[in-house]
Amino acid sequence: MDSWWKYGDEGACLVTKRDVIGLVLIGSILTAALVFSDSHALIILTEASSSPWFLLLIFVVYLFRPFFGWPHGIFPTAIGFIYGFRLGLIIGLIGGIVTVLPLYIVGRYFKTTTGLLAKASEVSDRFFTTTGETRGVIGARLTPLPTDVVAYAAGIAGVRIHSYLIGMFVGGIPWVIGFVYIGAAAQTLNIDTAQIPPSSVLLLATLGVFLLLGYPIFQKMRKDVK
């Protein structure tokens, strides 16, 4: 039995074991975020930057980042500061794929039609059904939504892995460029280092959201009106 508590004449499940596990996981992440702030991650990266194992350490930190509640943006910024724009961009893009896998997998596990998480599954599934999987992931990743929210929503909606990875990679490009740019510029104290204005990155992301999500959402709204 996956359910613990039930209510109503039809025995609709109110709380399931997955709900409890999910709440425990959320509580653990919030606790870790309070105990280990993102400054701890930056200290680790800075102190280990001269180590021959530094690249491996970066990807390990990227992998476990979601479980400490650390924002994604600080890592490509730090990498840009350490490696500069060109190499930092490559590392940041690869790391950006590594770091979005854990919560996607967690979301796949928590996909359900009963319990407290059922509504989240329903809303996420409706969104990606309306927009299309790859298009929806790209559009959501281009928005200022936290990366982990997009990852979990895609997982709980059952988005296929290849559509998810393509969408997160493409949608993350403008943001990674922007964060690496900031780090590289801070390294040299020269805002022209990367030769890509941050305003252009934001404009590109905004335009991408409208182009990718505007039409399918408009079509969905028009059908609902009819």
Overview in brief:
With 226 residues, this protein is mostly helical. The protein has eleven helices and two strands; from the N terminus they run E-E-H-H-H-H-H-H-H-H-H-H-H.
Please tell me about this protein's structure:
This protein has 226 residues and is mainly alpha-helical. Helix content is 73%, strand content 4%. A hairpin with a 4-residue loop joins strand 1 (3-7) and strand 2 (12-16). The radius of gyration is 20 Å and the shape is globular.
List key phrases describing it.
about 230 residues, mainly alpha, 2 strands, about 5% strand
Q: In terms of structural class, how would the helical and strand content be classed?
A: mainly alpha
Shape: globular
Number of strands: 2
> Whole-Å distance between the termini?
42 Å
Number of domains: 1
Layout of helices and strands, plus pairs?
Elements lengths: L2 E5 L4 E5 H19 L2 H10 L6 H11 L9 H10 L1 H14 L2 H10 L7 H14 L1 H10 L4 H10 L4 H28 L9 H28 L1
Antiparallel strand pairs: 1-2
Helix pairs in contact: 2-4, 4-5, 4-10, 5-10, 6-9, 7-8, 8-10, 8-11, 10-11
